[in-house]
Design goal:
The chain is mainly α and 102 residues long. It has two helices and no strands.
Length: 102
């Protein structure tokens, strides 16, 4: 029959408690890393969608600028011409920024 002293049982308890604490911490960090990575991928996906939408908006803006320039060269005889005279300056430099890979 095995005989264990209290010191042996205390030593085994410390080893098991340390191992359990280490595993619990490791598992919690693993779950947190998975959540952060999933959120990072979602943010990058959203950034790619926004980049595509801004690219399409820039193309539409370029087309509208061509129309604007045409109407400024050939002004119509209506009141709407006066509303066309103010244009917003748009900074499209954000489209030059790279999006990090997922």
């Amino acid at each position: 029959m095995f005989r264990f002293s209290i010191r042996d049982l205390l030593f085994v308890t410390v080893i098991v408690a340390t191992g359990t604490g280490w595993w619990t911490t490791s598992h919690a960090l693993q779950l947190k890393n998975q959540a952060v990575n999933a959120e990072r991928v979602a943010v990058i996906h959203q950034a790619q969608k926004l980049h595509d939408m801004l690219g399409r908006a820039k193309l539409n803006n370029d087309s509208l600028n061509e129309d604007y320039n045409y109407f400024m060269r050939h002004p119509p005889m209506t009141e709407t011409h006066s509303r066309l005279s103010s244009r917003a300056k748009i900074d499209w430099s954000v489209l030059d920024e790279p999006i990090p890979p997922p």
